[in-house]
Design the sequence.
């Protein structure tokens, strides 16, 4: 499943869990089989086991990160799809700042505006907008209007306004430039 698709968080939870289980099983198999086949080379068997365990550990960390966030709400997706028309959209985003991770249910991009909606508890609008501003400024995209909402009604009203007058801009590298950046910085 492609990052930005609805249900991505749920997909990544499952994928990370399966990867962690399979890689842990492979590490255990290599360790015990290696001890049985090469009893004199315990060090080599240990090194191989550790090398196989690294991807397993990474999958466990990824699983823990995704477990902290709920997968997309189909009610939000249905409402956004009803309103957005052809406005580009990015669902199920997890942004990580220097001190905390934040879930964003949906981002949309139109007319040099990046709008987000987050219904997660403890969401800090100012911190996330400042974080995104720093990223876009660093990419020399200073003219981007960034607004993240925690109020669904206000988000939908702004989306209606943008979708009514939206005309697609030429894509950047085959993708919408603003959402492409969100895809690159999201888990």
Sequence:
């Amino acid at each position: 499943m492609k990052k930005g698709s609805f249900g991505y968080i749920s997909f990544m939870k499952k994928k990370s869990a399966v990867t962690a289980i399979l890689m842990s099983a492979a590490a255990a198999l290599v360790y015990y089989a290696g001890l049985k086949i090469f009893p004199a080379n315990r060090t080599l068997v240990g090194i191989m086991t550790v090398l196989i365990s690294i991807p397993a550990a990474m999958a466990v960390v990824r699983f823990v990160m995704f477990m902290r966030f709920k997968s997309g709400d189909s009610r939000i997706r249905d409402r956004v799809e009803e309103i957005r028309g052809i406005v580009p959209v990015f669902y199920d985003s997890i942004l990580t700042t220097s001190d905390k991770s934040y879930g964003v249910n949906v981002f949309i991009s139109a007319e040099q505006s990046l709008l987000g909606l987050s219904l997660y508890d403890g969401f800090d609008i100012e911190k996330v907008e400042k974080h995104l501003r720093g990223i876009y400024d660093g990419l020399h995209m200073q003219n981007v209007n960034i607004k993240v909402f925690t109020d669904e009604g206000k988000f939908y009203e702004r989306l209606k306004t943008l979708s009514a007058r939206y005309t697609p801009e030429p894509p950047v590298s085959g993708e919408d430039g603003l959402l492409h950046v969100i895809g690159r910085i999201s888990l």
The first helix runs from residue 8 to 37. The chain is about 55% helix and 15% strand. The chain has two domains: 8-67, 74-185. The mean pLDDT is 90.
